[in-house]
Write a structure and sequence with these properties.
81% helix, 16 helices, disordered N terminus, Growth Hormone, Chain: A, mainly alpha, globular
Length: 409
Amino acid sequence: MSIPGRPPAIFRLYLSGQTASFVAYQMLSVAVGWHIYDLTKSPLVLGFVGLAQFLPQLLLTLVVGHVADRYDRRGIIRVCQAVEALTAAALALGSLTGHLGPYGILACSVVIGAARAFEYPSLLAFLPALVGDEALPRCLALSAAGRQTGIILGPALGGVLCLVAPEAAYGAAAAFSLTALVLFSLLRPALAPVRRDPASLRFLFEGISFVRSRPDILGAISLDLFSVLLGGATALLPLYAQDILSVGPVGLGALRSAPAAGAIAMSLVLARWPLTRGVGRRMFWSVAVFGAATVVFGLSRSFALSLAALAVLGAADNVSVVVRSSLVQLDTPEAMRGRVSAINAVFIGTSNQLGEFESGVTAAWFGAVPAVVLGGVLTMVVVLLWTRLFPGLLARETLRENGNGVQRK
């Protein structure tokens, strides 16, 4: 029998599968970034990798939400893992035989983006059925720690394997995706599925209407969108590693891992001491710190200072992630969690993948350092603007709207 508010045993299986999935995805990200930049030496092409992964997510939003709310979420996750494993294997084979060029890498990035478009919302919506709402805030914090563990291990392993050959990193990513497929196959939801309404246009668009009607949810996910869209410098890390800091692929892996190191430390803190008061204010402050750390990273010429700035950036971002994820899941009825999670995933994808495209374009126009510094400054401007646009979110005290979930002992 599980203790209220504490993660049930089945969550460990979910956490292991999610971590393996993120290791695979991050290994692919660092390998694809290093490989395509090595082939083209173009920051603009690096940006196109992010765009190739984002566009399927944007175009499939309504379909993803419909599928996640009407079909077996565990089955969706398993199919996505199989597709990602096959795509990674195709990249490995193409690289090994010398037939993989920039266009082939971009095409595979589109396939990975489509699979992730279905997988991530299904993972988010599936979690409450496994653990229940009482344990959800702590499980979300630990889930964030698992994702960040994958983000630490994936780039580090990917960077080392890229020293051997890109196909080594692609092959290892395929193996991790298969591991995640096996682990997710063992999951059984603890809660019975909710009866769904018949499919209709109203059903498809209901998630959008719900988010628009809830200012706290809209404010939280849009704040994340614009802050990471403007302040994210992930796409330019291969350029920083090669041309500015001169640290090679192993250094690139460390740079990719540094935000995750900060984030996992913060995740463990939040799992041990969950946020119970002043969640809105803490979220806004964390995004402001994210922007300031981005400016420091952009100006840094020291590898150690760059790693420290990225770690602070990751820790600050994780506070925002946990608050946003908790608000979205706890304020949304179970029958709509797939559609709302799909919208949330699009906002996340916009901030990450489209943010990578934006970083590549601005770096091509102004140079890498001005692009990163400008993004960090604009992030802090967005924080000030959002305090005016969403005063209710700023004033929100608890993760649950009625204030009675996370505070019960």
